Automatic annotation (TrEMBL):
The organism's taxonomic lineage, starting at the top: Bacteria, Bacillati, Actinomycetota, Actinomycetes, Streptosporangiales
A GO term for molecular function: protein serine/threonine kinase activity
Name used for this protein in its record: non-specific serine/threonine protein kinase
InterPro entries: Kinase-like_dom_sf, Prot_kinase_dom, Protein_kinase_ATP_BS, Ser/Thr_kinase_AS
Enzyme class, first EC level, given as a word: transferase
Region of interest (Disordered), residue spans: 403-423
Positions that bind ATP: K42
Regions of compositional bias (Basic and acidic residues) in chain numbering: 403-414
Residues of the Protein kinase domain: 13-270
Statement: the UniProt record of this protein carries the keyword rRNA processing: no
Keywords associated with the record: ATP-binding, Kinase, Membrane, Nucleotide-binding, Serine/threonine-protein kinase, Transferase, Transmembrane, Transmembrane helix
EC number: 2.7.11.1
Chain ranges passing through the membrane: 284-312
Amino acid sequence: MSQSERLVLATRYRLVSEIGHGANGTVWRGHDELLDRAVAIKELRLPEDLSEDDRVVFYRRTLREARAPAQLRTPSIVEVYDVVIEQGRPWIVMELIEAPSLEELIERSGPLPPDRVGHIGRKLLDALGTAHRAGIVHRDLKPSNVLLDGDRVVLTDFGLAFSSGSASLTKTGHFMGSPAYVAPEVAAGEKATPRSDLWSLGATLYAALEGRPPFERDNVMATLSALANEPAPVPANAGTLGPVITGLLEKNPTRRLSHARAADRLERALSGPRSGRRPATPRYRLTVVAALVAATVASCGVGATALIVGMMREGPEPAPAPAQAATSAAAGAGVPAGVASSTLAVRARNDACKIFVSIPGEAMTVLADETLKRDEARKYDQQRLNAVIYDASACDVWVNGRREPGGAPGERKNLTVTRTSGG
């Protein structure tokens, strides 16, 4: 065990294991021994060549990173618990979220489907709305700062955030932010605003749909040149999200979508039909019925009513209710092979069976994050599993060989499964 892993901060926060590290420091899994809960601890390392004035700026920025989300109470923004100065450097104690980032998901699975990107966009818009109403601009929204915890979307890393009531801590001549996701006006040296956060949101959603940000090039200078001189590319995989993405990537901030207009377009895109086909319209023998009705009306009004009811009944039978259709499909498919020996098994009743399966631990391992096709099955034999079933009516689930009860349409189920000795 390293010296850092034996360290206890402020006599209560014990470092347990390293989660990840970068140029500016390390993120640790920790344990709050006073409240007996797991926490994340961000250790910020100061470059050795910093002057005393620069160190003061660094400390102020650290406090700002902690204060910004601490003012914002929403599930879509990471919760900060404490800031500790230990061994001459700051440590930020925050909520532990054991979930992959959007960047990791894109790298692992490639471009995401528009409906999932739309869900992510809606949650991030909510997070930005909360921050902007509090006078806080994030300034570094990008896929690596977005965590996906089941259907929860969490915006993290407010290290570059600033409040409209605080002085800027960015030194003249120092570029802050990620070039592939920074708004054009900020790259040109203008002050960041809520509209520039919305541009970064558009670039983040573009990357989720296309697998790469819109202006990414081989190096920083080429990226900034493309950002300044080239038109925003039209996303190929956006579907109904296209107007949202192009509106957010408008280079002129005065013509860029506002928060309200972006939310409105996004809601329209998500509430629209999932395919371009219109629902089938029942066909009736209108010409024959019209003639019969006309003839009957001439002789007896009551007969006309009877014929109109008969016309309605000549149409095709109504489709069965979704729950009935799903039950019939599941019953016909039988029990998948290998269920009896599996810790967890899932089979799709229909195409809405979305699952998230992971192995818990100090470093969570994601086994599945997908939507299964009708009758498609997945089986897992690991000793301990966490699973999220997003629509309990769309999936059949077996735990240690035993069938789990179903649920209502849209009902979410969270399962923690441990393999039994007989499994």
